[in-house]
Amino acid sequence: MEESRPPSVVDRYFQKRYKTDVQGNPGEDQLILTHSNRICVICIAQSHPIICEKKIISKINFQGDGWSRLENTVTGKNKRGAQWLERMAPLCCVTCTDGSVFTLCCCVKGQLVEINTNLETRPSLLTEKSSSNGYLAVILPGLKHFNREVERLKSEEEYRKVLEYRSNKSAFQNLETPQPCGINITSLPLDAVVPEQRVTEQNKCDLQGKQEDNDETMLRDGSLCHNIKKASEVNSL
Amino acid sequence: MGRLARAEQTQQMDVFEFFTSSLEECKQIAATLVEVGCCARCLLRFLGESKSSSYKYSYQNVYDVLGLERSSNVNSVQDCPCPSCLGILQKYADNLFLSKILQKVQDDSYEFSDYQCSLILPVCIAIRQRAIHIFLKKKFGVIYSVQEDKLPTVKDIWKWSCGFKVGELLSAQFQNKSGFDILMTFTYPESNKECSFLLDTFPDVFKKRKQRKYGFETFTRANVAKALIDMDDSKFEDCTSCPPSVPIAECSCEITCTHEPVFVAGRYQKYSRVLSQTPWIVEGKRVMEGSVEELICDPILNTFKPSDHRFSSSGREDVDVRMLGDGRPFIVELINPHCVIFSTQDMSLLQEKINSCSKDVQVRDLQIVSREDTAILKDGEISKTKCYSAECWCERPLTETDLVKLAGIKDLVLQQKTPLRVLHRRTAATRERLIHSLSAKVLSDKLFKLNLNTQAGTYIKEFVHSDFGRTTPNLGELLGAECDIINLDVESVDVDWPPKINLSIGEKNISSTSAETINYTDAEQNEESADKT
Ligand SMILES: [Zn+2]
Prior knowledge:
The complex is a heterodimer of chains A (237) and B (533).
Chain A: H1 9-13, E1 14-19, E2 30-35, E3 40-44, H2 49-52, E4 57-61, E5 63-64, E6 67-68, E7 84-85, E8 90-96, E9 101-105, E10 110-115, H3 118-121, H4 125-128, E11 137-140, H5 146-152, H6 156-173, H7 196-208, H8 211-221, H9 227-236
Antiparallel strand pairs in A: 1-2, 2-3, 3-11, 4-8, 5-6, 7-10, 8-9, 10-11
Helix pairs in contact in A: 7-8, 8-9
Chain B: H1 6-13, H2 23-36, H3 40-47, H4 61-65, H5 95-107, E1 114-120, H6 124-140, H7 154-170, E2 173-174, E3 180-187, H8 191-195, H9 197-201, H10 203-207, H11 221-229, H12 233-239, E4 252-259, E5 262-270, E6 280-282, E7 285-288, H13 292-304, E8 308-313, E9 321-335, H14 344-357, E10 361-369, H15 374-383, E11 385-394, H16 400-407, E12 410-417, E13 430-442, E14 447-455, H17 460-465, E15 471-472, H18 475-479, E16 483-493, H19 507-532
Parallel strand pairs in B: 1-2, 1-3, 9-16
Antiparallel strand pairs in B: 3-4, 5-9, 5-10, 6-7, 8-9, 11-14, 11-16, 12-13, 12-15, 13-14
The complex binds zinc ion.
């Protein structure tokens, strides 16, 4: 008798949520595993170019210009000393053998509890076991923020629809030049701390609901305004 | 009733052991004490009597022996309490008050076989005692050169006078030390006022207590006693009157009963995978009905009727983990129990009662233990080993080589990061844990039973599924294939405590109980295999 695989650790303990087009970069999707205890495990999604274009990773670096996730000391039950990261704070830079560089982000705001240092020695974990041993980091959102942070992310169903929309779209456009993936992210501002004004703006967006989530992301990244429309369309699907 | 002849007086003086054996001197001292308003027991007290028997029934004999009028408070202070004991050895030592104690104990419905009593006295009693002592010293010289602490205390005298009488009323033996305590708190409204001169004399000592605004807290028995030692007689006399003033108010008394905690220990087995060990309540809402703690404690609480309780055990298992084998040692601390007299027989009946309430939790070796013994439980938590059996899955069938490899593992050192499932409330750390031994048995194609003997504190689930590679080495690494855990049982918690009890309630009972358990285990195993397919 063939036994099917029992529900995995992820199935049993976590809910899968997604952030698509992170930092407004098309296709750069991330997976966030959320536990009912508020622990968020930040991963890369299967649809991310690194995985779907079968890239080979040469280096994963947990620090960049003005930020370092390696310098994070966490003590006690209250995780004192942990870096407080905003949603778009970079977690690591992934360099691939084809020269492309991707920045993977935090996606939920909260305390940085740990980073997966195994990735430094075995970068291939990121593609081979993207939603388990290849996790990027563990974030603990505040007690008051957790639900809101999770709500802002896409559900599996919403994520599936985004992927469907994309594949339909590319079917229409398949004669045009495909959009480049792997923008050289290091040229973008990567401040972990969002200025006060922007936080207020975010709060406004929170009140207005999820539809604005994408707009907010786009606005913050300025240059990618043409994507706003695309994102809204996605949401209205 | 009448006065005794001098010869008789001299003879009866032998009954007492006073500071002076001179009848004449005793008469003078007694007359002086009567004049300031002292009660009969305080007469004996300041005369130096330290034989408890003198204070019981015949304490008023002192008047006859010393040729005084019985209860004649010469200077019209008849209605005022004694300036030495503030009435605690008068009104509060008479039968009317003792019957109030009985009433209180009955109202609180306590059960006990012996008792102790404690008294909290107004702080100013120490000042009044000092004042009388100085007064006597000045008047009678060398006789009162004895240290003040040679005088029997008001507390002692109350106990000598009333202890056995209360015992008779309660049908319980009076003991100096007993689990059941009757506390009498005496309050004298003028106490602070009478102490207030100390504040001016020792501003440093009493200022620390934020001075007068803290009222009651300014003067404690300890700091007043210390201040009195540091103050010589003449200074004391300057500050307050010797002898002390006649009390203008009466003491009030509050009676409270408490029983010292009783500890009930035992072992529990848990057969459910949907039962939390302690009540699972999040933000005031119950996440899961019932708990091991409640199933065990409810019948115990109904029996011992405590004011409060604390449940603790040697470690704990997750909601979805069963506790099998001999069970897990636990203790229930019963705070202020109202019923405590239970025989071994009673305890085994209580155990049966717990076991009849639920099939999910069964207890054994239920017994009353001492407070000292409870430390063993906590020690065992860190030092002991635990045995588990886990039903596991592997992405490929296990081979004979795999089984041999696992069986060969001895004292494997694990590096375990705090599991993700508890990381929100525990310190993030990497801890070293030992797996003493391992063995596996194939159940079906990809399922196998893993038996583990580990150091206490090892996270078994994480060792099997690796927790995203956060426990290393893990079973998957050892086998070179992905593994997961389906369910987990604790097979033994190696703590040799509490002592095992052989049920002695008759062969018949034992066999019926164990038969039930066996049937139940069968049912459980059937369910389990149903889960597997
Ligand atoms: Zn008295």
